[in-house]
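User: I'm putting together a teaching handout on how sequence relates to shape, and I'd like one worked example. Could you take Glycoside hydrolase family 3 protein from Thermothelomyces thermophilus, show the sequence you're using, and then write out its predicted structure as tokens right after it?

Assistant: Happy to. First the sequence, then the structure tokens directly below it.
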Amino acid sequence: MSTLDGDLDPLWQDLDWAIGQMLIMGWDGTEVTPQIRTLIEQHHLGSVLLTAKNLKSAEQTARLVQELQTIARQAGHPYPLLIALDQENGGVNSLFDEDYICQFPSSMGQAAASSADLAYKIAKATATEVSAVGVNLILGPVLDVLTNARYQPLGVRATGDDPQEVSQYGIAAMNGYKDAGVATCGKHFPSYGNLDFLGSSLDIPIITQTLEELSLSALVPFRNAIATGKLDAMFVGGCGIANPSMNVNHACLSEQVVDDLLRNELGFQGVAISECLEMEGLRNEIGVKTGTVMAVEAGCDLVMLCRAYDVQLEAISGLKLGVENELITKERIYTSLRRIVRMKKSCTSWQKALNPPGISLLSKIHPGHLALSLKAYDDSIAVIRDNEKLLPLTSSMHQEEELLLLTPLVRPLPASSMTKALLEKKQIDPVTLHDKWVHRDRGAIMSGEGVFRELGRSLARARHGKLLHTSYTANGVRPVHENLINRASCIIIVTADANRNLYQAGFTKHVSMMCSLLRANGQKKSLIVVAVSSPYDFAMDKSVGTYICTFDFTETAMAALVRVLCGKIKPRGTLPGTLRKSRKVLKSRQHWLVEPYDRDRDAKGLQDLLQSLARASAPAHQFLQTTSAHSFELFSPNIEEAHFVVRNSSTQALYGFCATYFVQGTGIIGALFVDPAKRNVSIGRSLQRRALRGLTQKRGIKKVQLGMSFPGVFLGIPADDSAGLKQWFTNGGWDLQFPRRLVNMAVSSLNSWIAPEGLLQSIQRAGITFDLIHGLDNADNVLAHVSAHASPEVLELYRFALQETKSCGVVRAKGHAEALLGTVIVCKPGSTLASFIPPLQPSPARPDEPVGGIVSPIVAPSSAQATLVLQGLALMGLRQNKTHKSLKSVLSWVQDDAHEPLLAMGFEVVQVFEEFTNSPDNWQDFS
């Protein structure tokens, strides 16, 4: 009989309790109903999903959540309920309260603002607000890549079609949620970014890409987010997969998707949450009872049932039957419980759950969040083209000329005062995220002009002139439109996902043609097209001469649009993903002033730049969290160093930084960083050009190197190349064909580490001995050995370590007749060397953890015992680290494939970089 380990509450020996913890459920209504109370009290429901149908205001939400948690506490729940919410911003916010909850741009709108740091601040602000009313789990970030961006209903909820950019902004958002104390849930695994809808409302959308194709694109952001270790949960979609290696009807019910792909291949250890099993296709094809069991068998820990009480009871009954039929074991249930409990402990407690700060906190933070919202929207509005210089309208139109606004009929977004007003009049039901994805409400059309009525009024007020406004439908251009077009001097057409609502595209092209004909007859007929959702509507259609994108049509976005149209602000937004890159050529001629780095002037700016990079970076660059502005300054008598910055002389902010070094004929770029908000405008290009000009003009220069081990901040290009750096450096003149691979490794739990059986005996039989030296007095043979087998900066690294006699030493491996076979540097926790090699410092998540270092093992490659010598040096290093009370040991760096024998010793690979060396002749034009 299965028994619980000590880490789980004995209460869960009762399987009714255990099963309740594996379900996440919602209901309709703004008050606690007898049904949801029964689910919590009698069926021990452990997680609740809140949607727009439950929430009227921030104050009501705080009371509702507090009541739910009180019911759970009184019913004997050992841990508070998980309270989950979709709060993606843009058009997908379940909680709206214009007095206390701020509206921010959609994910794609945030990317359009070109600032991952801004995305982090928005995510932190959003999570702080929902946490104040008791929410402890945000269903986000969205990590989908819009592989087929033009026709996907996910639209602006996704960052874009570039997997690296999606990773960057997804990780920034995730960090923001976590720093606000809220649990995170990546979605929608394996991807909702390229779905093929087959037509019927009962059809399940299908992924047709192969696993190889998914791995190269759609899975990249999920892989990177998982690698950070900060992703608490993963939402597994309900889509199908049809390719040669996989035929799956519902991803969340497939062991191939959850256990094999998500857990085994991508290494996810958190909570897997299924798509809502109330979806019509699943109910009709499989049935909820069987579907619930299949979800758990597949590896899901939380099974979602959105709102139908009878279906929810059916799911509970299904899980009990699954246990009775021995399809689900107790061990399987307890595995999920451990994951769920771990997540609950990370984001809530009874003290926190029963006492949400509510309005008192929201009132305090609201002004600051409003300012952030205003900046975010102003920065996100993108003017893609303005060929006729129609903007601002105050310059291209006289006040007495008439302006015509033509808008489609769309459903109000949930996060809007209009939806709130209509709800209060009970004219419509809110459309939630789960309505769209579960019940297949894919239409974007709704009767009524109200959504854009306030846009027209605001625009008329702002330009102090007459404005005509009417809607258009699938009926095309009608006589009323023709009459108004004849009257107006300028026409603004609004589109909302015209690629999926084709009548909008047809209407816009018809009006565009009319305007061209009227202009040919001498009339003034300017045309502006505004895409208020997907930017792909007319992004590539050059016949639309003035094209603006807002990325959502909330009232806040429309207010920012008015400011752009009337010249109150200068638009800064850009197209997302590959569309931005296609416009990069237009920006590439920009040159920036590059100045020498000044420590007194620039140190703070460099520290801020490093923090922005750390928040925005993929896992391979997480060492930036422990890098300081002083990490780059060596002050070594044997190394010339010259560092450069691009900066804002008015604000002292650094937009870019490049560190260069020259030692024994080798010129080295030891760092090249650009503010994530300032990429693709040639800052990196300007810095690299200045750095290479300086290096290639050095007397005696023999080679130029990209990547450096001392300081060990920028060892080279990450092997996974998550930011597309190889192509960037190739474009800058580098030949990247022959890299040297450098690997950072670690033993994460040194206390429990045990040397492999037989290793010490093998070393002894080979006649290899070891000793530890400090200081330069007796280190001549060490320096000679390093000079013969390593690059010049590594020699200086050894010199530095030998001089740090209190915190560093060098272990020597000797063979017969005292012949030196290999060396390695060993560091105590907190050594001076750690300030130059960030992986040797404790992570921000565990600041008190002592980290020992084993640095730069150098083994003569000609030695027949090279592998055994390397393992022996690592073994001696680990023993020294243990002696110094280290809890973790970092081995930085191991060359090429030499790291493989160290895996058998218990080391794990943390980072892999590629260092490159080129001839100075590659940049002759810089001389």
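A couple of points you could highlight for students: The chain has 32 helices and 33 strands. The longest strand covers residues 908-918.
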